[in-house]
Every structure is written in C-alpha cells, then in structure tokens.
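Priority: medium. Attachment 1 of 2:
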C-alpha cells in the first residue's frame, strides 16, 4: 500500500506544480478512512493545514486520489471549458469555410450556423456541411473554373 501512496503523492506533486501550488507547505493532503458508523467516514489531515490553499487532495480508502475545490472554482473551470469548446467549434468551422473559397465569408458563416442550429448535434462534419452549403448555394463561393481562360485567350483583350 505504501507503493500506491507514493504513487499518489507523486501525482499530487505533478498536479500541484501545474496549478502553481507546488510548494509543499501550500498543499493540503487529507485521508479518508472507515469509522465505526456505517454512514460516516473519518477525514484526517496528513499534510498542510485546514486553512490551506485549494485544491485539497484527498486519498480514499483504496488510495484513489481526489481533489476538493470550492464551487466557484469548479464553475470557473466549467465556464472556461465551455468557452474553449466554442472557440474550437468556431475555428473548425472557419477553416472548413475558408478551404472552399467563399466570396463572402460572413454569408457562408450565417448559412452554416443556421444549418448547425437545425441539426442540434455535437458531432458535425464541418467539411461535409460546407460542401453541402457550396452545393446548395454555389453563388456564395468562388468557382475556379470560372477563372480559367481557354488557351489562346489574352486576358488584356477582355479589358479593351
């Protein structure tokens, strides 16, 4: 069991370093153990203090590591994850649109967002979606075939 405990402590050190609370005096480590009452457990302070900085690390009876954080911190994490998800969504859609050479990016974006709203699905193949929009609304995209000039045609003649 000491092996599992040292493994958990190494994990705490790694996590704490990433959270910028790597100084040992700043870390609070708690241990959960059984009590005589079936519906109660004993929480023992193993390192740090009860007023130590969050997160508090908790080892359960099976030496599984947990973290306790204030609800405000959890809300902030969830908010940041949602924002990152939205940014990733936007970047993927933007990339897919730009690959198809839009004439007016914003018009294509608007049509794409309407399609996304209709589908209400998390798993969207953006490239497939934009190809469908290009097929349904070809006027929103450049067609390189329209830019091709037959052999022997002088582009300067077009402007004379």
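Attachment 2 of 2:
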């Amino acid at each position: 069991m000491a092996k599992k405990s040292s493994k958990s402590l190494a994990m705490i050190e790694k996590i704490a370093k990433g959270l910028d609370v790597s100084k040992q005096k700043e870390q609070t480590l708690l241990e959960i153990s059984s009590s005589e009452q079936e519906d109660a457990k004993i929480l023992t302070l193993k390192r740090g203090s009860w007023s130590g900085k969050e997160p508090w690390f908790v080892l359960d009876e099976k030496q599984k590591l947990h973290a306790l954080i204030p609800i405000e911190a959890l809300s902030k994490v969830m908010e940041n994850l949602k924002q990152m998800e939205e940014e990733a969504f936007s970047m993927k859609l933007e990339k897919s649109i730009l690959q198809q050479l839009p004439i007016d990016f914003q018009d294509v974006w608007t049509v794409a967002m309407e399609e996304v709203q209709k589908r209400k699905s998390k798993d969207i193949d953006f490239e497939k979606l934009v190809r469908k929009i290009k097929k349904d609304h070809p006027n929103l995209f450049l067609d390189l075939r329209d830019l091709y000039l037959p052999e022997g045609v002088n582009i300067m003649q077009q402007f004379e």
